[in-house]
Amino acid sequence: MKKFICKHPWAHFEVNNPNGDVTMCCDNNTVLGNINDGGLEKVWNGQGYRKMRRRMCREGAHAFCPLTCPVLNGRKAYQNLDWYKDLDPQSAAYKNAEINERELAEGKETLQSLPRWMRFTYSYHCNLDCYHCYQRKEATQNTKLSTSFLEEIKTHADLFQVIFPFGGEPFLYKPVIDMLKNLKTAQGCRFFFVTNATLITESTINALRRRNLGLIAVSLDGATEKTFNALRVRGRKADWGQVLANLQRLSELKKEKDFQFTMSMTVNTQNCNEIEAFVGLVITYDAEPLLMLVSNPYETHAFQKHYLSFTKEQFSSIAGQIELSLKKVQGRNMREAEISLIQLRDQLLRHRLGENQPWIYMGKTLARRLFRHLPEFAQRQLKSIIQQLRRKALF
User: Fold this and answer.
1) pLDDT at 18 over 50
2) C-alpha neighbours within 13 Å on the C-beta side of residue 51
3) How many C-beta atoms surround the C-beta of residue 382 within 10 A?
4) Where is 390: in which H helix or E strand?
5) Which of 3, 32, 272, 320 could cross-link 60 (Cys pair, CB 3.0–4.6 Å)?
6) Which whole-number Å values give the CA distances from 340 to 72, 136, 224, 234, in the listed order?
7) What CA–CA distances, in Å, run from 213 to 27, 222, 228, 343?
8) Across the chain, which distance is largest between two alpha carbons, in Å?
9) How far apart are the first and last CA of the chain?
10) Using N-to-C axis directions, what is the helix angle for 312-330 and 335-353, rounded to 10°?
């Protein structure tokens, strides 16, 4: 298998936790530094990033990144930054990107260029309480990203190709709204958002309209009001009718701005009868439907039993819905949606043969917990062995 060199350690800076921890992406949780220990530039060329660049060159992403990574599976094309040539050649962002491309090609560990992709989680606070949210406990603490780092973002904004506020719910945060309205960026810089689509006001739409948009991804988890209320609201104030109205607003904005527009659904035993309906609903808004099997955020037996123990009838129904949905997205050339449905089909096959059985899940959970108590060097060795076995099984 050809070694795959992921560009993220050279181009991406992601503060995926409001406590300041930095990773190269949201799919590899290796912490490369913390912005509270010296700021952006110190982390960017710190030990964590240099080591990650060195490992990427020597081993390739398949050696240590999750094999479920969307990039490794042909998805998330929007993370590719090759379009920097659309920027003004005289701009700081273009010149930074040129240096960065050269440093990537040469496999440099210490860089003169600064990040081109800036993704940050201002807070985990959210107006909803979704059933599968791994941030639920942290959201109650209402930790916020440091104001000093927000100032660093403003200082370097003219270098970024992408600015990607994350959450929680990003449209809930005043500093994020202020950035959207007032941040001085390179002319071609693109804004990305992931949102639950409950707080899209006319003012928000007007602010988005004045920006270059690369991606708006809506997390929905159902095709009906009943499912929405059961899986997403959980006692919080949100209205399904308003969500649909906001989706229409975003759909109309897409006609003007031509950004990538997606809606996602995590499949479980409570919404698996809505897969085909979800795909149909999303397509009506000229968006791309993305589906995946939900993960068990806190590894509890209760969650597994309630949301991830499917009956034979449900497996049969899901299989039929996936095939019908594939025809719908293939007819519209929705490549990411097609890949996500194929991956969902494969996930469910593995799940049916494994963790759909509670005793198998409990055994794997125990093994994962024991693994976390091993010394770091033993964890690395064991991870390497497991990755090799998985690659052989796949390739």
Assistant:
1) yes
2) 10
3) 12
4) helix 376-394
5) 3
6) 13, 26, 21, 27
7) 22, 25, 27, 27
8) 61
9) 8
10) 160
**If you search the block for the tokens 């930054």, which residue do you land on?**
81
Q: Which amino acid is at 330?
A: Q
Are 160 and 186 in contact by the 8 Å Cβ rule? The answer is yes
Sign of dihedral through CA atoms 221, 225, 230, 234? positive
Q: Look at residue 232 in the predicted model and tell me its pLDDT.
A: 82
Residue 15: predicted pLDDT: 97
Q: At what angle do helices 312-330 and 275-284 cross, to 10 degrees?
A: 20
Residues near 76 by beta carbon (within 8 Å), at least 6 away in sequence: 70, 336
State the amino acid at position 25 in one-letter form: C
Reported as a pLDDT band with limits 50, 70 and 90, residue 300 is confident
Phi, psi torsion values for 292, nearest 5 degrees: -150, 155
Paired residues of 266 in beta bridges: 292
Q: Write down the pLDDT at residue 395.
A: 45
Query: How confident is the model over 229-250, as a mean pLDDT?
Result: 86
Q: Which residue has the higher pLDDT, 132 or 233?
A: 132
User: How many whole angstroms separate alpha carbon 62 and alpha carbon 59?
Assistant: 8
CA angle, 293 as apex, 291 and 296 as ends, to 5°?
Answer: 140
**Which amino acid, one-letter code, is at 164?**
F
**pTM over the 0.85 mark:** yes
